[in-house]
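Shift notes (night). Ran TatD family deoxyribonuclease while the centrifuge was going.
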Amino acid sequence: MLIDTHAHLNAPQFDEDRQEVIERALQNGIRRIVNVGFNRETIPSSIALAEQYDFIYSTVGWHPTDAIDMKPEDLQWIESLCQHEKVVAIGEIGLDYYWDTSPKEVQDRVFRDQIRLARKVGMPIVIHNRDAHHDVVQTLREERAAEVGGVMHCYSGSWETAKLCLDMNFYISFGGPVTFKNAKQPKEVLEKVPLDRLLFETDAPYLAPHPYRGKRNESSYVRLVAEIAAEIKGISLEELAEITTHNAVTLFGLK
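Came back to this:
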């Protein structure tokens, strides 16, 4: 039994076969999926998906690349949605210095506002971090994110940065890139992350694992990530699945 802790199954890439994709996940032992809403368009459809399937949950948050579009009323909207029984975290939120779509100062404000909201409502946060390792860690520390904890989504940083995140009550999540043949650093970090702080995800439809690299990702492929991780950790897939399922249930409060 595995949990895909980060997917976007409400994305248009699944409009033609969403039901089949979800059924394949179940057939491959994926028992719960955390689907991520990250802006004005995707939050409602993510919640609708969670309402349709009892084993799918939703997060609500504002992605850093869309930070420029966020208005004060959107933060109030997100706060109101945190009361929904299927909403389990605020995210994905963070900083993205790769895509030049929102100024850094706007990203910073939106990120900090949502960390403060998470502390206000007592919910964990899902962190998006692209090329912004130092600033993400510093912001988490300054905003006392350790009070709620969360997950470093599709982690791509160093072990040194991972240790700082672990010290702030965060889980480290790995997706498709850890299966790539040239993924030296992700594999080394995964080897060092304690089992009780480890999570798996797909980020579907993005970042498909080997041997599907470059193709559409889907939740059933989280099993391929877990298989590689089991080899690296030197334990059985069954044991690793049990541990990481417990981790996800604990972090998100899944039923």
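Strands lie at 2-7, 30-37, 56-60, 87-96, 125-130, 150-152, 170-174, 198-200. Residues 2-252 form a domain with the TIM Barrel fold (CATH 3.20.20.140).
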